[in-house]
Specification:
Elements: H1 32-35, E1 45-49, E2 55-59, E3 68-72, E4 76-78, H2 79-85, E5 94-96, E6 102-105, E7 114-115, E8 121-126, E9 129-134, E10 145-146, H3 175-192
Parallel strand pairs: 7-10
Antiparallel strand pairs: 1-2, 3-9, 4-6, 5-6, 8-9
This protein binds zinc ion (ZN).
């Protein structure tokens, strides 16, 4: 899995995320092999104000489970390049690739998709490209979401979640990261003494 850093950059004030330097990642149990042969993108996606956060992506057409919804497009940067470029940026749209060395600097509609702890989509990396797939049938008018599984954020930022789902974990960090962060904090405190 990845170990880079990322987050969300804003060129406008439309932004899905709050300020931390974090990285989005695809789940480790990706099904890339079966998906690679059948990519056909859904073209009925619009950006609209969201009840989860700021603006989000909505579909104007029903989407079937397993359909390829949209590609997460953007230039590829190394983690170091992204660190330098966005060092002082409160928000970025970086998506960490599985090699742990590169991130996609999101520049398309997919960068507007909000996080949910009970999402209707999931990202998957296929040959270095990231696609967002429907993981259940989605009705016309629904907001598209996926689980950001954030990692490598600032320890003082909990990346609060406002998805309102019943199983909301109150943070956009991955479960692994949520479990790891208290240990990192404790180590940092010790180092500071
Ligand atoms: Zn949530």
């Amino acid at each position: 899995m990845t170990s880079s850093l990322g987050s969300w950059r804003s060129t406008a004030e439309l932004l899905p995320l709050n300020s931390t330097i974090v990285t989005l990642s695809a789940p480790q149990s990706g099904t890339s092999g079966t998906r690679a042969a059948s990519i056909r993108l859904i073209m009925a996606i619009v950006v609209h104000p969201s009840r989860i956060h700021a603006y989000g992506c909505y579909t104007t057409e029903p989407i079937q489970k397993a359909a390829t919804v949209i590609e997460y497009t953007g230039p590829r940067l190394t983690v170091d390049e992204a660190d330098t470029l966005y060092e002082n940026s409160p928000r970025t749209y970086l998506f960490g690739l599985e090699d742990g060395k590169q991130v996609i600097d999101g520049d398309g509609l997919a960068a507007f998709i909000n996080h949910s702890c009970d999402p209707n989509c999931e990202p998957d990396e296929i040959n270095g490209r990231v696609f967002i797939f429907a993981i259940r049938d989605i009705k016309a008018g629904e907001e598209l979401t996926y689980d950001y599984n954030l990692y490598d954020g600032e320890l003082d930022d909990v990346a609060p979640c406002s998805c309102r789902s019943q199983n909301c974990r109150r943070s956009m960090y991955s479960e692994t990261e949520i479990a790891r962060r208290p240990k990192l904090k404790s180590r940092k405190r010790k180092l500071l003494r």
